[in-house]
Amino acid sequence: MRYTISHTGTPRHSGRYKYGSGKDPQRSKTFLSNVEELRKKGMSDGEIAKGMGMNSTRFRIKISIANDDIKKDKIAQAWRLKEKGLSNPAIGKRMGGLNESSVRDLLKPNVKLRSEMTDVTVNMLKESVASKKYIDVGAGVEHNLGVNRTKLKTAIAKLEEEGYMISRPQEHQLGTNKNTNLLVLSLPEDPKVRRILQLKNENVPDKEIPIILGIHPDEIKQLLKAAYVDVYKNRGSIKMPIIYSEDGGLTSIPIKPPKSVSSDRVYIRYHEDGGTEKDGVIELRRGVADLSLSSKRYAQVRIGVNDTHFMKGMAVYSDDIPKGADIVYNTNKKTGTAKADVFKIMKADMEDPNVKKILSSDISKDEQVKLIDKGLAEGHIKPDWENPFGATVRQKDYDESTDIDGMTEGVTVRQKHYVDNGEKKLSALNIVNEEGDWGKWSKTLSAQMLSKQKPSLAKQQLGITYDKKKQEYDNIMSLTNPLVKKKLLASFSDDADSSAVHLKAAAMPRQGSHVILPILIKENEIYAPNFRNGEKVVLIRYPHGGIFEIPELTVNNKTKSADTMRDAEDAVGVHHKVAAKLSGADFDGDTVLVIPNDNKQIKTSPPLKDLKDFDPKIYYDSTLPKMKDFTKQREMGGISNLITDMTIKGANDDELAKAVKHSMVVIDAQKHGLNYRQSAIDNNISLLKKTYQGGATKGSSTLISRSKSGIDVAFRKYGKVVTNPVTGKNKRMYIDPLTGKKQYEYEESSYINKLGVTVKKTVKSTKMAEVDDAFELSSGTPMENIYANHANKLKALGNEARKEMIAIKPPLYSPSAKTTYSEEVKTLMSKLRIAETNKPFERQAMLIGNVKVNAKKMANPNMEKGELKKLKGRELIQARLRVGASKKTVDITDREWEAIQAGAISANKLSSILDNTNMDKIKQLATPKTFISMPPSKIAIAKSMMSKGRTRAEIADHLGVSVSTLAKIDL
Predict the structure, then answer these.
(1) Cα torsion through 532, 533, 538, 542, rounded to 10
(2) What would the pLDDT profile of 882-901 be if each residue is shown by its tens digit?
(3) Relative to the CA of 445, which of 27, 125, 513, 575 has its CA 20 to 30 Å away?
(4) Residue 72 — very low, low, confident or very high, per pLDDT cuts 50/70/90?
């Protein structure tokens, strides 16, 4: 039987006070009595809430407010009677027959304090709004205020009754393409808006509000819209309701400019003296405090020079430093080139008045850049000390007296400090990567590389990739905790979809990423201490043109020329001519994949004859305007895809040589101003595109190159997953329970761009993500068929995971388990509170970071896409430091995991814990694997062999362990 609630009568009364007039407790009693009456008639709380014009959340809050009011009234009455000298039994009698124990509870001091907590929170929020105007009351704020979420919601609801406004603007996340939903409390300045909000909060029907206020309905809409737009426009002014900074962090923390060295300390080794053979290597004198590499032997660095220029490259120690210098900078530039022209110019401060003056002039963009660079070099324009190198480098504390590294979070740089007479000072080395960093990089094989190999190898490595994915899926499905399983399945399904787009394959055995350094060694040899002496290895660098760019070398770990990098963790030493074969690599931090190849699984071929001695800077020097960053990305993507399509479709060496030549021009076009347009004509790129891509203006033509190609699709509504499309309520994004596929609700919408043209609103996607069958992207070659089968299997696995995910029921909560694991429950809740405490700080950092980014975009409206991306990352790091945002995860112990498995944690709390923990650790806990560490006896042998100069590969072979296992031991 269903009941309806009419406009008049119970529970909604006519007049302003629909729940009764007078004191709050009277209204609250009336409201609760009405609810209880309807419950007795068989109505559910959901039906009652709907009849009252509320959602279930608002209904629960109203009940909480009413109960709080009644409880507070009882406590106040009990204390008044107690102060008059009445005994507890007498108080109970005066209060309607309460028993003595109930009176004692009302008179407990802590109960009185708890009853007042809502009012305290209300007053604190009022004060915050009065002083800061726009207040963040989103998730996590309650922990900083010392109240629970329910109490905070209750306080907010009370303020809404007084005309305060809750709005939910979105703010762009600096590190992603997603938006964050904000929850903002404010008090509109217009009294009409406050009165409208009060009436809405009282659930007065929208059609009655204009009659009560005596204004037109359209004016109400306009007033409300203006109030919400005001909050949106002032997102940068949203603050937390606690004081941690006078301006919310908008004032920058003073950032020390990176220390520069004098150019007098730098010796330039030019081309004629062998500089080209070590191009990019920065040699350092040993024992110089401000140039110390600490315990490392090499690092990719930036070093400021004269506060106007800088050097970039790989820093290593050298015993061949000319007298009077501390640094040797190797360059391919000719003798006679001025030092200032060898170094790179620092980035300008776009807020500098002289910069603004130049940018507002009528001269060309290239002339503007030249004038700014000239002003920087001459000291008329300030460098951007927050980002002088145009790259994010990191800070590092270093105490030379103890030779111990101490890592600290950096603002935009990780710098080294040294101690001089007890005073910590800034080092000249600004670190990008250092020894040990490269070995942590992902170990996979890209489709760009593998598709140019034998089909049998691609099939083998893709098969391994799928088998690993399937094993991961099976492991997740074997889990017993339903919520953990659901969380992991959601992540797994998204990852399977992503893998189908990117098409990365499993790494070859013992494959690793290494940075290359030049040493005196034969052209066909390599110093590679992580590999076996005498074995063959191949080197692969990206972007990868073809097998003619893959050198095969013999490992020689006996060479004495490698003494300065002996037993390097993740670097290899090669002859300088090897770098030339690697797509024109140099030694300023370029990296390669090193793969053992004794079994000849990786195909190689001699360099293409037409590429011998080809220098794009000689053939295509240009007076063209400097290439834009987005143009370079477009041109590089286009020629890379053409080379891939040509290789897969069997192009000959002459054709490939033309395409590769053009790619070399495009790579250096932006940096050296090369005429890439003339290169396209000379190398007949239009004919190659017509032959292998179907037309001079056509794009990718094979599955490998088309998979990640961008595509605009109609604007989608994202939101809560709806798992039952049969009902017709297919709102936003949902999962089809029959297929497991993600389905979207599309919205036909448009906007007017800057040119006044109406444009349909779209979202970015990829071609592979949008097709159900990967064969739709294939031109039918054997290699494409292998990849299409692989992509379809991954898509099917992702769909299967989603089907299983939506069928999972919430875990059962066990009160007895909560009692058994009471201590573990306490520690988990404590860890969760700490983790959630960071959320409002992270939102504050995001808001502040966006303010800074927008200001810099206005100062430099022609900022390139890549530069803007770097700027967002830097500003987010700085903003996090200013507001004290620091991600803290819930680290779950074995015993706490037992409590979770036993059902001691409710589904909602467990979901929050999983959102704030390391899911890799959860996988380990959920699917424990036995890891057998090296016994002490083997560790002792390893250390002994290391002290005698044996390589890691030799030690690993001797002990019967992998190099990666050996890397986990402190040798």
Answers:
(1) 70
(2) 777 887 889 999 999 999 98
(3) 575
(4) confident
Cβ distance 236 to 848 under 8 Å? yes
Do residues 646 and 688 touch, judged by C-beta distance below 8 A?
yes
CB 526 within 8 A of CB 486: no
Q: Chain-centre distance of CA 866, in angstroms? A: 16
User: From CA 154, how far away is CA 148, in angstroms rounded?
Assistant: 10
Unique residue bearing structure tokens 């068989």? 42
pLDDT of 405 strictly over 50 = no
Each residue's pLDDT tens digit, 580-635: 888 778 899 999 999 999 999 999 999 888 888 787 877 777 666 666 666 777 88
Among 310, 379, 313, 380, CA closest to 345: 310
Averaged pLDDT score across all residues of the chain = 82
Written as six digits, the tokens of 517 are 């350094």
* 254 has pLDDT over 50: no
pLDDT of residue 256: 64
* Residue 857, amino acid: K
Cis peptide upstream of residue 607 (ω within 30 degrees of 0): no
pLDDT at 48 > cutoff 60 = yes
- SS3 of 400-447: CCCCEEEECCCCCCCEEEEEECCEEEEEEEEEEEECCCHHHCCCEECH
Distances (CA, A) of 887 to 409, 525, 667, 839: 12, 46, 38, 8
What domains are defined for the chain? Answer: 24-237 (no CATH), 260-347+383-435 (no CATH), 512-600 (2.40.40.20), 616-771 (no CATH), 815-926 (no CATH), 936-967 (no CATH)
Q: What is the 3-state secondary structure (H, E, C) of 120-158?
A: HHHHHHHHHHHHHCCEECCCCHHHHHCCCHHHHHHHHHH
As a whole number, mean pLDDT of residues 527-553 equals: 93
Contact 5, 43 (CB under 8 A): no
**pLDDT average, residue stretch 712-730:** 57
CA separation for the pair 35, 33 (Å, rounded): 5
What is the rounded distance in angstroms from the CA atom of residue 491 to the CA atom of residue 856?
36
